[in-house]
Design brief:
single chain; alpha+beta; Methane Monooxygenase Hydroxylase, Chain G, domain 1; five-stranded antiparallel beta sheet; 44% helix
């Protein structure tokens, strides 16, 4: 269980501070079911209540600084997603974000990036679905890395590129 004051990553919402654990006093909600009270880092998103036992949306501790550095080093060896059916593409992207797994987010970013290059070579633009999910994955992943590595969010792409090319 997460502690009050701890920072976590919650699905596509991103970084949140755990403000506490509570029960809900609402009709139809079991009185003994516990909920985390989460305050998103982007304060404009309001307060989030999510069941402690929620299995649908990923909730995890933030990476450590060492884990963040290790992830960046591993990026070249992480395989892109293999999505054969375009009709399942968006559902696959949603699942990656819901999982809250940084490896899956890297896989999704690589997949969308590769697809964008392929489409460009064919004279096509990137799809709106790809653009939307790329932005969500990058926002979530790069914001976390930015905080951990104390590098401005807008410089994360260059930082990661430099690290990868430096190998």
């Amino acid at each position: 269980m997460f502690e009050t004051g701890e920072y976590v990553v919650y699905g596509h919402v991103g970084i949140c501070e755990v403000k506490g654990v509570t029960t809900m006093q609402q009709e139809g909600v079991p009185a003994d079911r516990l909920y985390y009270v989460l305050q998103p880092e982007k304060k404009s998103e309001g307060t989030i209540y999510t069941p402690v036992d929620n299995m649908r949306m990923g909730l995890r501790r933030m990476m450590t600084k060492a884990e963040a550095a290790e992830l960046i080093e591993e990026i070249p060896s992480i395989e892109a997603l293999d999505i054969k059916n375009d009709k399942q593409r968006e559902e696959c992207y949603k699942e990656c974000l819901r999982s809250c797994d940084v490896i899956e987010m890297v896989r999704m970013i690589k997949s969308i990036y590769n697809r964008k290059i392929q489409r460009f070579k064919m004279g096509k633009k990137n799809t709106a679905v790809d653009e939307r999910y790329m932005k969500m994955a990058e926002d979530s992943l790069y914001t976390e890395l930015s905080i951990l590595l104390d590098i401005p969010r807008e410089k994360m792409v260059d930082y990661i590129s430099d690290k990868i090319e430096g190998h």
